[in-house]
Design goal:
The complex is a heterodimer of chains A (about 250) and B (about 325). Chain A is of the alpha/beta class. Chain A has helices spanning about 35-50, 70-80, 95-110, 125-135, 190-195, 235-245, and strands at about 1-5, 10, 35, 55-65, 80-85, 110-115, 140-150, 150-160, 160-170, 170-175, 200-205, 215-220, 230. Chain A has a single domain, classed as HUPs (Rossmann fold, 3-Layer(aba) Sandwich). Chain B folds into two domains: about 5-165, 3-Layer(aba) Sandwich (Rossmann fold), CATH 3.40.50; about 200-310, 3-Layer(aba) Sandwich (Rossmann fold), CATH 3.40.50. Chain B contains eight helices and 16 strands. The chains are: A alpha/beta (about 250), B alpha/beta (about 325). β12 (about 215-220) of chain A pairs antiparallel with β8 (about 135-140) of chain B, so a sheet runs across the interface.
């Protein structure tokens, strides 16, 4: 089987985000960039399916500027067999990303697509669902366990009410939640090995994908900061204050 | 005139409170508001939805396939209904996050996720970077605005409405490739951490897995969900599904009590939209006090039993 894994480059989760003074965006100059954490989980899951003895080719795909090759090399070092970068300097929103992935899925004849449930920059949580819609195939979002049974996947999903279990027929799209797995660390020899793995580059314009409707990002602002309150002398004072504020009855 | 369709979230018997929050957002957009209830039967859910303030009609789309909330089954029906509306809204819960982008893509529309504020019927504020920045976005009017509503930003609309319930059929062949198996509910009987109105969380200061009993006890007294800091999870005191923070759950309860939590930035990111934050910590200089509305400095093993006793007094 062929497994496609989406890799998005984002500002590293440890960076404290600053909104630009003129509200035109978020400071991304000089900050550390990494693979979206949920995408690392997606890749790890694909590798585990392959390591369980399923004959599988794992292809890491990304959309972004030319230097996203660096993150794709990391994906190859983790264990992906090959990678494809769809090159563009434009910001790509979820519906457009889904259209691009659909084109790749068709070219590759993929059986399974694993994506992160959301990217930690725009926090949209849409691309996997949109791809599944356009592909007319099942989606199993927010996965915390995946079990392959022939041509069917049994997926446990993290939903607000608990854990939902569903079966989906392949081909299908899975999006990953945090608890699905813990991604492996990349070892030095793997980094060397990754240098000789195939990494193809396509220009977005050459892909023949029609531009998708998109939101206009008008402006950005820092959230209203929370200021500290006061310390109270006793438990009695705390309960009284909470009751006065209507927080407790 | 805007025509807004709100997708109801329910479990087959009861309307989820997130629906009333999404209606509040619809009221802020302004226009005629309908609620769609997809269910096998759904009569009780429709009756509850019809009472919500400002709702004009409740559409009951009853068919056996709608028994379980499967996105692949519901989305084509939503996309078809959307043709009659200027806006389609759903709560930004795991239900709405799963189903609405699929419907939007089928309708050929972009989606606005996690609406915090309505600027005008096509312009919205939404959080990015885990709420560390707020973006103002403008959605194209055509074909239709699809948006999920960040439930923590909206209070439930009141009741007092008397909408008519209309039986609606959506003529579509639905896919069989996705099958619901079961829902494994949390057996503790405590409210769900993500949507609870009150949360008591413990941190490294609690000291051990056994000591966490004091956190559970206070939570049960308050009818609260239990959470934990990453440090407490990493130390093995509690399972990691209780983790609150940037890489865990981002929550916004009415009352958040942080016990023995120092307040690392990654934890603060997960709680900063809580209405009232209470910190209980031995160290008066802990960063948690910089964001807490109310604080108590002292030994948690002494203060928590005292707090329980005080809560018993009327």
């Amino acid at each position: 089987m062929k497994i496609l894994v989406g890799i998005k480059r984002v500002v590293d989760y440890s960076v404290r985000i600053q909104v630009k003074k003129d509200g035109s965006g978020v400071e991304t100059g000089g900050v550390k960039l990494s693979i979206n954490p949920f995408d690392e989980i997606a890749l790890e899951e694909a590798l585990r399916i392959r390591e369980k003895g399923v004959q599988a080719e794992v292809v890491a795909v990304s959309i972004g500027p030319a230097d996203v090759q660096q993150q794709l090399r990391t994906a190859l070092a983790m264990g992906a067999d090959r990678a494809t970068l769809v090159e563009t300097t434009d910001a790509v929103q979820p519906l457009m990303a889904a259209r691009v992935f659909l084109e790749l899925v068709k070219r590759e004849n993929a059986d399974l697509v694993i994506l992160g449930k959301q990217a930690i920059d725009d926090d949209c949580n849409q691309t996997g669902q949109m791809l599944a819609a356009l592909w007319d195939r099942p989606q199993a979002t927010f996965a915390s366990a995946v079990e392959l049974k022939g041509k069917t996947l049994r997926v446990t999903r993290e939903v607000d009410a608990g854990l939902e279990v569903m079966d989906v027929d392949l081909p299908a799209v899975i999006t990953t939640d945090l608890r699905l797995n813990t991604p492996r660390f990349v070892k030095m020899p793997d980094i060397m090995k990754a240098k000789s793995k195939p990494l193809a580059t396509l220009k977005l314009a050459e892909l023949g994908v029609a531009p998708a409707p998109a939101l206009e990002y008008v402006s950005y602002a820092a959230p209203t900061p929370r200021s500290g309150g006061r310390k109270l002398e006793s438990v009695q004072a705390l309960v009284k204050e909470l009751r006065d504020r209507g927080v407790l009855s | 005139m805007n025509k807004i369709l709100v997708i109801a979230e329910h479990d087959g018997a009861k309307l989820n409170n997130s629906t009333a929050r999404a209606v509040s957002c619809a009221l802020a957009v302004g226009g005629d508001i309908d609620i769609a209830v997809f269910a096998a039967d759904g009569k009780a859910v429709c009756a509850a939805a019809g009472k919500l303030k400002g709702v004009k009609r409740v559409l009951r789309i009853a068919r056996p396939e709608n028994q379980a909330p499967l996105a692949a089954v519901l989305a084509p029906q939503i996309a078809k209904l959307a043709a009659e509306y200027s806006h389609v809204l759903a709560p930004s819960t795991t239900f709405g996050k799963d189903v609405l982008p699929r419907a939007a893509a089928l309708a050929g529309a972009a989606q606005v996720s996690d609406v915090m504020k309505v600027v005008d019927p096509y312009t919205f504020e939404r959080p990015i970077y885990a709420g560390n920045a707020i973006a103002t976005v403008k959605a194209p009017a055509k074909p239709c605005v699809f948006a999920t509503v960040r439930t923590a930003s909206w209070s439930a609309c009141g009741e007092g409405g008397s909408a008519s319930v209309v039986d609606q059929t959506v003529d579509l062949v639905l896919p069989l490739h996705s099958r619901y198996v079961e829902l494994k509910k949390d057996e503790s009987g405590r409210p769900d951490l993500q949507s609870a109105g009150r949360v008591v969380s413990g941190g490294r200061g609690v000291g051990s897995k056994e000591n966490f009993a004091v956190i559970y006890k206070l939570a049960d007294k308050l009818g609260a969900a239990v959470g934990a800091s990453r440090a407490a999870v990493d130390a093995g005191f509690v399972p990691n599904d209780l983790q609150v923070g940037q890489t865990g759950k981002i929550i916004a309860p009415d009352l958040y009590i942080a016990v023995g939590i120092s307040g690392a930035i990654q934890h603060i990111t997960g709680i900063k939209d809580a209405r009232t934050i209470v910190a209980i910590n031995r160290d008066g200089d802990a960063p948690i006090f910089q964001v807490a509305d109310l604080g108590l400095v002292g030994d948690l093993f002494q203060l928590l039993p005292e707090l329980e006793k005080e809560l018993d007094k009327v």
